[in-house]
Write a structure and sequence with these properties.
The chain has 174 residues and is an alpha+beta fold. The protein is built from three helices and seven strands. The N and C termini lie close together (6 Å).
Length: 174
Amino acid sequence: MKTIRIAGDPVLRVVADDVEDIDGKLITTCESMLEAMYDAPGIGLAATQVGIQKNFFVYDEDGEPKVLFNPKLVESSGSWDYEEGCLSIPGIYLNLTRPKKVTVTGIDINGNEIIIEADELLARLFQHELDHLNGILMLDHLEAGAQDEQWNEFNKLKESGKIKIAKKGSTPFD
Ligand code: ZN
């Protein structure tokens, strides 16, 4: 199972490169990421969150595990408030306003180009994961003062020892 990296780890700030080949090794990586995501538990996990600089994420849609390679946001509309959490920033939840509906293109597990129109929770999930693949974390959407407050809160949680932080290259959650 892949280890989910926690905020403060520089891998969360890298911008992912497009996937060129969907081979067996990559599919195995996706399975391992899905395992980590469901174990967390969460509903989405971007490759950069497990230290892989590749442009894809895994997610759950109505109980079904899915993968989207080379996702691109092509359209967004409306506005929706939702309390967001992040597996890389455990313990912090933010009420963020983002577009309500999005259209995302990408490649599915079978190598087919697909277009997905998503609303509300699924749309939010896509926007959150697309951010990760660009090195953006949910706290970046807050104003500077509020960001500091939330990072301080998170650092306190980290210092309290309530959050397990993986050593680089180790797999303590396996
Ligand atoms: Zn996240």
